[in-house]
Write a structure and sequence with these properties.
By secondary structure, the protein is an all-beta fold. It has no helices and nine strands. The strands form two sheets. The chain has a six-stranded antiparallel β-barrel. Strands 1-5-6 form a three-stranded antiparallel sheet, with no helix packed on it. The structure holds S-adenosylmethionine (SAM). S-adenosylmethionine (SAM) binds next to strand 7.
Length: about 160
């Protein structure tokens, strides 16, 4: 992607400090970034999350949540921007003060409405990514989630 006026980048070495594993693909009605919503809306078009078959068992229990968190890899993003000009007018904002897809690790997150699960395919509303975007992870809505594991000392620590 081209730089806009006053945008700033950093020279990056080849990344070698982590690797993620794509666990599926997201199917949406949008074939280009320009067509996508800036942020998904819970009443937006129905989309599908197609899990790789080997992760099918990992869905067990997710059906009890109406809202789930989806993490995905915004694979068409540049990753070297430190300052960005979202309005293309020369005024800039730091990357970490934005939810722009251009970031060092282009992870997108959306809270989506879970409509139904059919085998390895989840039907949801609330996404904002291009068709075919790689899936990283799925989690229950943290507000509706109660930890299943026993409590730990840190749970009750406060300032
Ligand atoms: N909801 C996520 C978040 O807040 O982390 C993503 C928000 S980001 C502003 C959404 C925009 O990213 C879309 O409007 C589109 O322009 C762009 N986008 C969608 N899919 C993408 C992809 N696979 N790679 C790069 N950019 C993408």
């Amino acid at each position: 992607m081209d730089l806009r006026e006053n945008e700033q980048i950093v020279q990056l070495a080849q990344a070698s400090d982590a690797a993620v594993r794509f666990i599926g693909r997201i199917r949406t009605p949008w074939s280009t970034r320009d067509q996508c919503p800036r942020q998904g809306r819970i009443d937006g078009p129905e989309c599908q999350i197609a899990l790789l078959p080997e992760w099918h068992d990992a869905l067990d229990g997710l059906e009890f949540y109406q809202t789930i968190e989806v993490l995905y890899w915004l694979d068409q993003s540049r990753r070297d921007l430190t300052r960005q000009s979202p309005r293309s007018d020369g005024s800039t904002v730091g990357t970490f003060a934005l939810r722009s897809p251009a970031r060092p690790n282009p992870i997108g997150t959306s809270m989506v409405r879970l409509l139904r699960i059919e085998g390895p395919v989840l039907h949801v509303q609330g996404l904002d990514c291009v068709d075919g975007t790689p899936l990283l992870d799925l989690k229950p809505d943290r507000c509706a989630f109660t930890p299943k594991a026993p409590p730990q000392p840190g749970d009750s620590q406060t300032a």
